[in-house]
Amino acid sequence: MATKQLHVVMLASPGVSHLLPILLLGHRLVTHHNLHVTVLAVTTTATTPQSLSQLITSFASHLSVIQIPAADISCVVPPDAKVATQLCVMMRETIPSIRTTISAIDSHPHVLVGDIFAYESWAIAEELGIPKYLFVTGTAWFTALFTYSPLLDKQVVGQYVDKKEPLEIPGCTPVRPDEVVDPMLNRDDENYAVYLSQAIGVTLADGMLINTWEDLEPQTLNALRTNEILRSVVKYKPVYTVGPVNKRYEPDGLKGEVVEWLVKQPDRSVIYVSFGSEGTISAEQINELAWGLELSRQRFVWVVRPPNGHVSDGSFFKPGQSDTTRDYLPEGFLTRTQKVGLVVSSWAPQVEILNHTSVAVFLTHCGWNSTLESVTNGVPMIAWPLYAEQKMNAAMLTEELKVAVRPEVLPTKKVVGREEVARMVMNLVEGEEGKVMKIKVDMLKEGAENAIRENGSSYISICKFIEDCWSQIK
Ligand code: UDP
Predict the structure, then answer these.
(1) Which ligand 1 atom is at minimum distance from the Cα of 277?
(2) Rounded mean pLDDT, 365-374
(3) pTM score, two decimals?
(4) Is the peptide bond before 244 cis (omega within 30 degrees of 0)?
(5) Active-site residue set
(6) Is the Glycosyltransferase keyword given for this protein (predicted)?
(7) Cβ contacts of residue 41 below 8 Å, gap of 6+?
Protein backbone atom coordinates (compact mmCIF):
# COMPACT_ATOMS: atom_id res chain seq x y z
CA MET A 1 0.00 0.00 0.00
CA ALA A 2 2.74 2.46 1.02
CA THR A 3 4.21 2.56 -2.47
CA LYS A 4 1.00 4.00 -3.89
CA GLN A 5 0.42 7.75 -3.94
CA LEU A 6 -2.29 8.95 -1.58
CA HIS A 7 -5.01 10.77 -3.53
CA VAL A 8 -6.73 13.48 -1.47
CA VAL A 9 -9.86 15.19 -2.77
CA MET A 10 -10.32 18.60 -1.13
CA LEU A 11 -13.67 20.36 -1.21
CA ALA A 12 -13.89 24.14 -0.81
CA SER A 13 -17.08 26.14 -0.31
CA PRO A 14 -17.54 29.45 -2.18
CA GLY A 15 -15.41 32.43 -1.15
CA VAL A 16 -11.74 33.30 -1.55
CA SER A 17 -11.07 32.83 2.16
CA HIS A 18 -12.31 29.21 2.00
CA LEU A 19 -10.77 28.26 -1.33
CA LEU A 20 -7.37 29.91 -0.77
CA PRO A 21 -6.34 27.88 2.31
CA ILE A 22 -7.63 24.67 0.66
CA LEU A 23 -5.46 25.39 -2.40
CA LEU A 24 -2.50 26.25 -0.20
CA LEU A 25 -2.83 23.14 1.94
CA GLY A 26 -3.28 21.07 -1.23
CA HIS A 27 -0.16 22.64 -2.68
CA ARG A 28 1.80 21.80 0.46
CA LEU A 29 0.57 18.19 0.44
CA VAL A 30 1.79 17.85 -3.14
CA THR A 31 5.11 19.68 -2.90
CA HIS A 32 6.25 18.66 0.62
CA HIS A 33 4.55 15.29 1.05
CA ASN A 34 4.29 13.97 -2.48
CA LEU A 35 0.53 13.39 -2.42
CA HIS A 36 -1.87 13.56 -5.34
CA VAL A 37 -4.46 16.29 -4.72
CA THR A 38 -7.64 17.21 -6.55
CA VAL A 39 -9.38 20.38 -5.39
CA LEU A 40 -13.11 20.78 -5.96
CA ALA A 41 -13.97 24.48 -5.81
CA VAL A 42 -17.67 25.23 -5.47
CA THR A 43 -18.10 28.69 -6.93
CA THR A 44 -20.87 31.20 -7.45
CA THR A 45 -20.96 34.08 -9.87
CA ALA A 46 -22.24 36.42 -7.15
CA THR A 47 -19.32 35.97 -4.75
CA THR A 48 -16.60 35.39 -7.30
CA PRO A 49 -14.19 38.25 -7.84
CA GLN A 50 -12.25 38.22 -11.10
CA SER A 51 -9.17 37.31 -9.14
CA LEU A 52 -10.63 33.89 -8.33
CA SER A 53 -9.88 32.42 -11.73
CA GLN A 54 -6.35 33.90 -11.51
CA LEU A 55 -6.02 32.29 -8.11
CA ILE A 56 -7.04 28.89 -9.44
CA THR A 57 -4.76 29.22 -12.45
CA SER A 58 -1.79 30.03 -10.21
CA PHE A 59 -2.07 26.59 -8.58
CA ALA A 60 -2.81 24.67 -11.78
CA SER A 61 0.74 23.39 -12.25
CA HIS A 62 0.59 21.38 -8.99
CA LEU A 63 -3.05 20.69 -8.39
CA SER A 64 -5.92 19.58 -10.48
CA VAL A 65 -8.69 22.07 -9.70
CA ILE A 66 -12.26 21.42 -10.78
CA GLN A 67 -14.83 24.17 -10.47
CA ILE A 68 -18.36 23.14 -9.57
CA PRO A 69 -21.10 25.76 -9.99
CA ALA A 70 -23.04 26.14 -6.73
CA ALA A 71 -26.71 25.14 -6.80
CA ASP A 72 -29.25 27.93 -7.08
CA ILE A 73 -30.70 28.30 -3.56
CA SER A 74 -32.93 31.29 -4.23
CA CYS A 75 -36.05 29.16 -3.66
CA VAL A 76 -34.65 27.43 -0.59
CA VAL A 77 -33.43 30.22 1.70
CA PRO A 78 -34.60 33.81 2.08
CA PRO A 79 -32.21 36.30 0.44
CA ASP A 80 -31.57 37.97 3.82
CA ALA A 81 -30.28 34.74 5.41
CA LYS A 82 -26.81 35.06 6.95
CA VAL A 83 -23.88 34.19 4.68
CA ALA A 84 -23.02 31.17 6.85
CA THR A 85 -26.56 29.80 6.42
CA GLN A 86 -26.47 30.41 2.69
CA LEU A 87 -23.16 28.57 2.44
CA CYS A 88 -24.46 25.57 4.42
CA VAL A 89 -27.56 25.31 2.24
CA MET A 90 -25.64 25.97 -0.97
CA MET A 91 -23.17 23.20 -0.22
CA ARG A 92 -25.99 20.81 0.73
CA GLU A 93 -27.90 21.53 -2.48
CA THR A 94 -24.71 21.11 -4.52
CA ILE A 95 -24.04 17.60 -3.14
CA PRO A 96 -25.48 15.81 -6.23
CA SER A 97 -23.04 17.69 -8.53
CA ILE A 98 -20.18 17.09 -6.11
CA ARG A 99 -20.99 13.37 -6.07
CA THR A 100 -21.11 13.21 -9.88
CA THR A 101 -17.82 15.12 -10.14
CA ILE A 102 -16.03 12.88 -7.67
CA SER A 103 -17.23 9.73 -9.41
CA ALA A 104 -15.91 11.07 -12.73
CA ILE A 105 -12.37 11.68 -11.38
CA ASP A 106 -9.93 9.30 -13.10
CA SER A 107 -8.06 7.98 -10.11
CA HIS A 108 -10.02 6.75 -7.11
CA PRO A 109 -9.78 9.15 -4.14
CA HIS A 110 -8.43 7.76 -0.87
CA VAL A 111 -9.43 10.63 1.42
CA LEU A 112 -11.89 13.54 1.41
CA VAL A 113 -11.01 16.83 3.13
CA GLY A 114 -13.68 19.53 3.37
CA ASP A 115 -14.03 22.94 4.99
CA ILE A 116 -16.60 23.74 7.69
CA PHE A 117 -19.40 24.24 5.15
CA ALA A 118 -18.65 20.96 3.35
CA TYR A 119 -19.82 18.59 6.10
CA GLU A 120 -22.79 17.26 4.08
CA SER A 121 -20.18 15.72 1.79
CA TRP A 122 -19.16 13.26 4.54
CA ALA A 123 -22.01 11.12 3.15
CA ILE A 124 -20.17 10.85 -0.17
CA ALA A 125 -16.99 9.68 1.60
CA GLU A 126 -19.02 7.08 3.44
CA GLU A 127 -20.55 5.84 0.16
CA LEU A 128 -17.02 5.53 -1.25
CA GLY A 129 -15.73 3.89 1.93
CA ILE A 130 -13.00 6.49 2.42
CA PRO A 131 -12.08 8.61 5.47
CA LYS A 132 -13.21 12.22 5.64
CA TYR A 133 -11.45 15.07 7.39
CA LEU A 134 -12.50 18.54 8.38
CA PHE A 135 -10.17 21.44 7.56
CA VAL A 136 -10.86 24.41 9.84
CA THR A 137 -9.43 27.46 8.09
CA GLY A 138 -9.65 29.52 11.33
CA THR A 139 -8.14 29.17 14.80
CA ALA A 140 -8.23 26.35 17.34
CA TRP A 141 -10.07 28.75 19.67
CA PHE A 142 -12.83 29.21 17.07
CA THR A 143 -12.89 25.41 16.57
CA ALA A 144 -13.40 24.93 20.31
CA LEU A 145 -16.27 27.45 20.53
CA PHE A 146 -17.87 26.12 17.34
CA THR A 147 -17.81 22.44 18.28
CA TYR A 148 -18.77 23.19 21.89
CA SER A 149 -21.77 25.34 20.85
CA PRO A 150 -24.34 22.52 20.97
CA LEU A 151 -23.41 21.91 24.64
CA LEU A 152 -23.34 25.62 25.40
CA ASP A 153 -26.82 25.76 23.93
CA LYS A 154 -28.04 23.32 26.58
CA GLN A 155 -26.29 25.13 29.45
CA VAL A 156 -27.03 28.79 28.80
CA VAL A 157 -30.51 30.27 29.12
CA GLY A 158 -31.42 33.44 27.20
CA GLN A 159 -29.34 35.31 24.65
CA TYR A 160 -25.56 34.89 24.86
CA VAL A 161 -25.09 38.59 24.16
CA ASP A 162 -27.09 39.51 27.29
CA LYS A 163 -24.76 37.61 29.61
CA LYS A 164 -22.58 39.61 31.95
CA GLU A 165 -19.91 36.92 32.31
CA PRO A 166 -17.74 35.50 29.51
CA LEU A 167 -18.83 32.15 28.07
CA GLU A 168 -16.76 29.29 29.43
CA ILE A 169 -15.33 26.73 27.03
CA PRO A 170 -13.67 23.89 28.98
CA GLY A 171 -9.91 24.32 29.15
CA CYS A 172 -9.91 27.38 26.88
CA THR A 173 -9.89 31.16 27.25
CA PRO A 174 -13.54 32.22 27.81
CA VAL A 175 -15.26 34.13 25.01
CA ARG A 176 -16.86 37.49 25.75
CA PRO A 177 -20.58 37.36 24.93
CA ASP A 178 -20.40 40.20 22.40
CA GLU A 179 -17.50 38.52 20.61
CA VAL A 180 -19.20 35.25 19.71
CA VAL A 181 -19.49 34.27 16.05
CA ASP A 182 -22.32 35.95 14.11
CA PRO A 183 -24.91 33.14 14.17
CA MET A 184 -24.76 33.06 17.99
CA LEU A 185 -25.80 36.69 18.28
CA ASN A 186 -29.50 35.84 18.11
CA ARG A 187 -30.60 32.44 19.35
CA ASP A 188 -34.17 32.96 18.19
CA ASP A 189 -33.04 33.33 14.62
CA GLU A 190 -33.20 30.42 12.14
CA ASN A 191 -29.55 31.00 11.31
CA TYR A 192 -28.67 29.85 14.81
CA ALA A 193 -30.41 26.50 14.28
CA VAL A 194 -28.46 26.00 11.05
CA TYR A 195 -25.25 26.88 12.90
CA LEU A 196 -25.94 24.26 15.60
CA SER A 197 -26.57 21.53 13.01
CA GLN A 198 -23.38 22.55 11.25
CA ALA A 199 -21.45 22.39 14.55
CA ILE A 200 -22.64 18.82 15.05
CA GLY A 201 -22.14 17.89 11.37
CA VAL A 202 -18.48 18.90 11.25
CA THR A 203 -17.58 16.70 14.21
CA LEU A 204 -18.71 13.57 12.34
CA ALA A 205 -15.44 13.73 10.40
CA ASP A 206 -12.65 11.27 11.19
CA GLY A 207 -10.41 14.06 12.41
CA MET A 208 -9.74 17.75 12.04
CA LEU A 209 -6.94 19.73 10.50
CA ILE A 210 -6.63 23.29 11.83
CA ASN A 211 -4.87 26.23 10.22
CA THR A 212 -2.85 27.00 13.34
CA TRP A 213 0.35 25.77 14.97
CA GLU A 214 1.26 24.31 18.34
CA ASP A 215 3.15 27.34 19.72
CA LEU A 216 0.42 29.78 18.71
CA GLU A 217 -2.45 28.17 20.62
CA PRO A 218 -0.96 25.64 23.06
CA GLN A 219 -3.70 25.92 25.69
CA THR A 220 -6.63 25.48 23.30
CA LEU A 221 -4.98 22.67 21.36
CA ASN A 222 -4.25 20.91 24.61
CA ALA A 223 -7.91 21.29 25.64
CA LEU A 224 -9.16 19.91 22.31
CA ARG A 225 -6.94 16.88 22.81
CA THR A 226 -7.11 16.22 26.53
CA ASN A 227 -10.10 17.93 28.14
CA GLU A 228 -12.71 15.21 28.54
CA ILE A 229 -15.68 17.48 27.75
CA LEU A 230 -14.10 19.00 24.65
CA ARG A 231 -12.85 15.62 23.52
CA SER A 232 -16.37 14.31 23.75
CA VAL A 233 -17.72 17.12 21.56
CA VAL A 234 -15.09 16.42 18.90
CA LYS A 235 -15.98 12.75 19.29
CA TYR A 236 -12.47 11.78 20.45
CA LYS A 237 -11.14 12.43 16.94
CA PRO A 238 -7.55 13.50 16.32
CA VAL A 239 -6.65 17.16 15.92
CA TYR A 240 -3.81 18.00 13.50
CA THR A 241 -2.16 21.41 13.31
CA VAL A 242 -1.22 22.21 9.71
CA GLY A 243 -0.60 25.96 9.81
CA PRO A 244 0.20 28.51 8.99
CA VAL A 245 -1.20 27.61 5.62
CA ASN A 246 -1.09 31.02 4.01
CA LYS A 247 -0.09 32.76 0.85
CA ARG A 248 3.59 33.66 0.61
CA TYR A 249 5.08 36.35 -1.51
CA GLU A 250 6.54 34.85 -4.63
CA PRO A 251 8.30 37.42 -6.78
CA ASP A 252 7.01 37.08 -10.31
CA GLY A 253 8.72 40.13 -11.82
CA LEU A 254 5.38 41.89 -12.31
CA LYS A 255 5.09 45.21 -10.54
CA GLY A 256 1.68 46.76 -10.19
CA GLU A 257 0.75 50.31 -9.27
CA VAL A 258 0.75 49.65 -5.52
CA VAL A 259 4.16 48.00 -5.34
CA GLU A 260 5.65 50.69 -7.56
CA TRP A 261 4.30 53.26 -5.10
CA LEU A 262 5.58 51.34 -2.06
CA VAL A 263 9.09 51.14 -3.49
CA LYS A 264 9.30 54.94 -3.28
CA GLN A 265 8.37 55.10 0.44
CA PRO A 266 10.79 54.92 3.40
CA ASP A 267 11.15 51.65 5.31
CA ARG A 268 8.38 50.85 7.77
CA SER A 269 6.46 54.05 7.16
CA VAL A 270 3.19 52.93 5.54
CA ILE A 271 -0.08 51.73 7.04
CA TYR A 272 -2.01 49.29 4.86
CA VAL A 273 -5.80 49.43 5.34
CA SER A 274 -8.06 46.64 4.09
CA PHE A 275 -11.19 44.86 5.26
CA GLY A 276 -10.65 41.56 3.46
CA SER A 277 -12.32 40.12 0.42
CA GLU A 278 -15.87 41.10 1.34
CA GLY A 279 -15.79 43.56 4.24
CA THR A 280 -17.51 46.91 4.03
CA ILE A 281 -18.03 49.73 6.54
CA SER A 282 -20.63 52.48 6.76
CA ALA A 283 -20.39 55.78 4.87
CA GLU A 284 -19.95 57.58 8.21
CA GLN A 285 -17.13 55.23 9.17
CA ILE A 286 -15.38 55.70 5.81
CA ASN A 287 -15.51 59.42 6.46
CA GLU A 288 -14.01 59.12 9.97
CA LEU A 289 -11.34 56.69 8.78
CA ALA A 290 -10.35 59.03 5.96
CA TRP A 291 -10.09 62.01 8.32
CA GLY A 292 -8.17 59.89 10.82
CA LEU A 293 -5.61 58.82 8.22
CA GLU A 294 -5.24 62.40 7.09
CA LEU A 295 -4.84 63.70 10.67
CA SER A 296 -2.20 61.07 11.43
CA ARG A 297 -0.01 62.53 8.67
CA GLN A 298 1.32 59.03 7.99
CA ARG A 299 1.67 57.29 4.64
CA PHE A 300 -1.08 54.84 3.72
CA VAL A 301 -2.42 52.39 1.16
CA TRP A 302 -6.17 52.02 1.57
CA VAL A 303 -8.37 49.51 -0.25
CA VAL A 304 -11.71 51.31 -0.42
CA ARG A 305 -15.05 49.64 -1.16
CA PRO A 306 -18.49 51.18 -1.49
CA PRO A 307 -20.04 51.65 1.97
CA ASN A 308 -22.50 49.05 3.18
CA GLY A 309 -25.97 50.00 2.13
CA HIS A 310 -24.63 51.20 -1.21
CA VAL A 311 -26.69 49.80 -4.09
CA SER A 312 -24.11 48.23 -6.34
CA ASP A 313 -24.70 47.72 -10.04
CA GLY A 314 -23.41 44.21 -9.56
CA SER A 315 -20.11 44.74 -11.36
CA PHE A 316 -17.04 44.02 -9.28
CA PHE A 317 -14.98 47.09 -9.93
CA LYS A 318 -11.22 46.83 -10.23
CA PRO A 319 -8.55 49.53 -9.97
CA GLY A 320 -8.97 51.77 -12.95
CA GLN A 321 -12.38 50.38 -13.92
CA SER A 322 -15.68 52.09 -13.10
CA ASP A 323 -13.81 53.68 -10.22
CA THR A 324 -16.35 55.52 -8.09
CA THR A 325 -14.17 55.50 -4.98
CA ARG A 326 -13.92 59.27 -4.75
CA ASP A 327 -17.69 59.44 -4.21
CA TYR A 328 -17.30 57.79 -0.79
CA LEU A 329 -14.39 59.86 0.46
CA PRO A 330 -14.49 63.30 2.09
CA GLU A 331 -14.40 66.20 -0.35
CA GLY A 332 -10.82 66.97 -1.38
CA PHE A 333 -9.33 63.98 0.50
CA LEU A 334 -7.60 62.49 -2.53
CA THR A 335 -6.02 65.80 -3.48
CA ARG A 336 -4.90 66.66 0.04
CA THR A 337 -3.34 63.23 0.64
CA GLN A 338 -1.95 62.54 -2.82
CA LYS A 339 1.66 62.88 -1.68
CA VAL A 340 1.33 60.43 1.21
CA GLY A 341 -1.47 58.07 0.32
CA LEU A 342 -2.64 55.65 -2.30
CA VAL A 343 -6.30 54.70 -2.55
CA VAL A 344 -7.07 51.45 -4.36
CA SER A 345 -10.57 50.43 -5.39
CA SER A 346 -11.87 47.13 -4.04
CA TRP A 347 -8.88 44.80 -4.42
CA ALA A 348 -5.12 45.03 -3.87
CA PRO A 349 -2.22 42.54 -4.03
CA GLN A 350 -2.26 42.05 -0.28
CA VAL A 351 0.57 39.57 0.18
CA GLU A 352 2.93 41.66 -1.96
CA ILE A 353 1.99 44.71 0.10
CA LEU A 354 2.48 43.06 3.49
CA ASN A 355 5.79 41.65 2.32
CA HIS A 356 7.10 45.07 1.36
CA THR A 357 9.70 46.66 3.67
CA SER A 358 7.95 50.03 3.61
CA VAL A 359 4.82 48.63 5.30
CA ALA A 360 4.76 49.18 9.07
CA VAL A 361 1.18 48.41 10.14
CA PHE A 362 -1.89 46.60 8.83
CA LEU A 363 -5.34 47.92 9.74
CA THR A 364 -7.27 44.70 9.21
CA HIS A 365 -10.71 43.19 9.69
CA CYS A 366 -8.91 40.18 11.25
CA GLY A 367 -10.03 37.53 8.77
CA TRP A 368 -7.78 34.58 9.57
CA ASN A 369 -6.03 34.56 6.18
CA SER A 370 -5.23 38.26 6.48
CA THR A 371 -4.08 37.78 10.06
CA LEU A 372 -1.70 34.99 9.08
CA GLU A 373 -0.38 37.03 6.17
CA SER A 374 0.37 39.88 8.57
CA VAL A 375 2.02 37.63 11.16
CA THR A 376 4.18 35.76 8.64
CA ASN A 377 5.41 39.07 7.25
CA GLY A 378 6.09 40.49 10.73
CA VAL A 379 3.55 43.32 10.49
CA PRO A 380 1.77 44.56 13.69
CA MET A 381 -1.95 45.18 13.34
CA ILE A 382 -4.82 47.49 14.16
CA ALA A 383 -7.60 44.98 14.76
CA TRP A 384 -10.90 46.16 13.30
CA PRO A 385 -13.17 43.08 13.23
CA LEU A 386 -16.42 43.14 11.26
CA TYR A 387 -18.16 39.75 11.14
CA ALA A 388 -17.88 35.92 11.39
CA GLU A 389 -15.26 34.91 14.00
CA GLN A 390 -13.20 38.06 13.49
CA LYS A 391 -13.94 39.50 16.96
CA MET A 392 -12.43 36.40 18.56
CA ASN A 393 -9.38 36.75 16.31
CA ALA A 394 -9.09 40.41 17.34
CA ALA A 395 -9.32 39.50 21.03
CA MET A 396 -6.59 36.87 20.65
CA LEU A 397 -4.31 39.26 18.73
CA THR A 398 -4.69 42.11 21.20
CA GLU A 399 -5.06 40.46 24.60
CA GLU A 400 -3.15 37.21 24.30
CA LEU A 401 -0.55 37.63 21.58
CA LYS A 402 -0.24 41.43 21.99
CA VAL A 403 0.57 42.05 18.34
CA ALA A 404 -2.38 44.35 17.68
CA VAL A 405 -4.31 47.27 19.16
CA ARG A 406 -8.05 47.63 18.99
CA PRO A 407 -9.87 50.93 18.50
CA GLU A 408 -12.37 52.36 20.94
CA VAL A 409 -15.76 52.78 19.32
CA LEU A 410 -17.57 56.08 20.04
CA PRO A 411 -20.56 54.80 22.06
CA THR A 412 -22.89 57.55 20.90
CA LYS A 413 -22.15 57.14 17.21
CA LYS A 414 -21.12 53.48 17.00
CA VAL A 415 -18.15 54.42 14.85
CA VAL A 416 -14.44 54.75 15.49
CA GLY A 417 -13.76 58.47 15.54
CA ARG A 418 -11.08 60.21 13.48
CA GLU A 419 -9.01 61.16 16.57
CA GLU A 420 -8.87 57.51 17.65
CA VAL A 421 -7.79 56.43 14.15
CA ALA A 422 -5.07 59.09 14.06
CA ARG A 423 -3.87 58.21 17.58
CA MET A 424 -3.54 54.49 16.85
CA VAL A 425 -1.85 55.01 13.50
CA MET A 426 0.71 57.45 14.96
CA ASN A 427 1.40 55.18 17.96
CA LEU A 428 2.01 52.15 15.81
CA VAL A 429 3.96 53.76 12.98
CA GLU A 430 6.09 56.15 15.04
CA GLY A 431 5.60 55.35 18.72
CA GLU A 432 7.03 52.95 21.29
CA GLU A 433 3.90 50.75 21.13
CA GLY A 434 4.65 49.91 17.50
CA LYS A 435 8.25 48.98 18.32
CA VAL A 436 7.24 46.60 21.12
CA MET A 437 4.63 44.96 18.88
CA LYS A 438 7.09 44.57 16.06
CA ILE A 439 9.36 42.52 18.35
CA LYS A 440 6.42 40.34 19.41
CA VAL A 441 5.12 39.79 15.88
CA ASP A 442 8.61 38.91 14.66
CA MET A 443 8.74 36.21 17.33
CA LEU A 444 5.42 34.82 16.10
CA LYS A 445 6.74 34.94 12.54
CA GLU A 446 9.74 32.89 13.57
CA GLY A 447 7.50 30.40 15.39
CA ALA A 448 5.37 30.08 12.25
CA GLU A 449 8.41 29.44 10.08
CA ASN A 450 9.68 26.81 12.50
CA ALA A 451 6.30 25.06 12.55
CA ILE A 452 6.14 24.50 8.81
CA ARG A 453 9.75 23.69 8.08
CA GLU A 454 10.77 20.05 7.70
CA ASN A 455 10.35 18.33 11.07
CA GLY A 456 8.58 21.40 12.51
CA SER A 457 5.39 20.77 14.52
CA SER A 458 2.96 21.33 11.61
CA TYR A 459 5.12 19.29 9.22
CA ILE A 460 5.14 16.39 11.68
CA SER A 461 1.41 16.77 12.25
CA ILE A 462 0.74 16.53 8.49
CA CYS A 463 2.94 13.40 8.35
CA LYS A 464 0.84 11.93 11.16
CA PHE A 465 -2.36 12.80 9.30
CA ILE A 466 -1.07 11.02 6.19
CA GLU A 467 -0.07 8.00 8.26
CA ASP A 468 -3.53 7.90 9.85
CA CYS A 469 -5.16 8.14 6.42
CA TRP A 470 -3.16 5.16 5.15
CA SER A 471 -4.10 3.14 8.22
CA GLN A 472 -7.80 3.58 7.40
CA ILE A 473 -7.57 2.65 3.76
CA LYS A 474 -8.94 -0.79 3.14
N1 UDP B 1 -7.25 39.76 -0.33
C2 UDP B 1 -6.43 40.34 -1.30
N3 UDP B 1 -6.68 41.63 -1.68
C4 UDP B 1 -7.68 42.37 -1.15
C5 UDP B 1 -8.50 41.79 -0.17
C6 UDP B 1 -8.25 40.49 0.23
O7 UDP B 1 -5.49 39.70 -1.81
O8 UDP B 1 -7.82 43.53 -1.55
C9 UDP B 1 -6.99 38.38 0.09
C10 UDP B 1 -6.19 38.36 1.36
O11 UDP B 1 -4.80 38.39 1.06
C12 UDP B 1 -6.66 37.08 2.03
C13 UDP B 1 -8.08 36.90 1.54
O14 UDP B 1 -8.22 37.73 0.39
O15 UDP B 1 -5.85 35.99 1.61
C16 UDP B 1 -9.12 37.33 2.56
O17 UDP B 1 -9.27 36.33 3.51
P18 UDP B 1 -9.56 36.64 5.04
O19 UDP B 1 -9.70 35.33 5.73
O20 UDP B 1 -8.55 37.56 5.58
O21 UDP B 1 -10.91 37.44 5.11
P22 UDP B 1 -12.35 37.38 4.42
O23 UDP B 1 -12.19 37.99 3.12
O24 UDP B 1 -12.82 36.01 4.37
O25 UDP B 1 -13.19 38.21 5.31
Answers:
(1) 23
(2) 97
(3) 0.94
(4) yes
(5) 18, 115
(6) yes
(7) 12, 19, 22, 56, 65, 66, 67, 68
- Domains of the chain, CATH where assigned: 7-247+450-472 (3.40.50.2000), 257-312+319-449 (3.40.50.2000)
Q: Which atom of ligand 1 is nearest to the CA of 366?
A: 20
Alpha helices (H) in 329-430, listed in sequence order = 333-336, 350-355, 368-376, 390-395, 418-429
DSSP calls for 403-440: -EE-PPPBTTTTB--HHHHHHHHHHHHTSHHHHHHHHH
Atom 2 (ligand 1) nearest CA: 350
Q: What whole-number distance in Å separates Cα of residue 153 and Cα of residue 157?
A: 8
pLDDT tens digit sequence for 143-197 = 999 999 999 999 999 999 999 999 999 999 999 999 999 999 999 999 999 999 9
User: What ipTM does the predicted assembly reach?
Assistant: 0.99
- Ligand 1 contacts (CB < 6 A) are 16-17, 20, 247, 274, 276-279, 303, 347-348, 350-351, 365, 367-370, 373
**Residue bearing the CA closest to ligand 1, atom 15:** 369
Residues 6 or more apart whose Cβ sits within 8 Å of residue 456: 449, 450
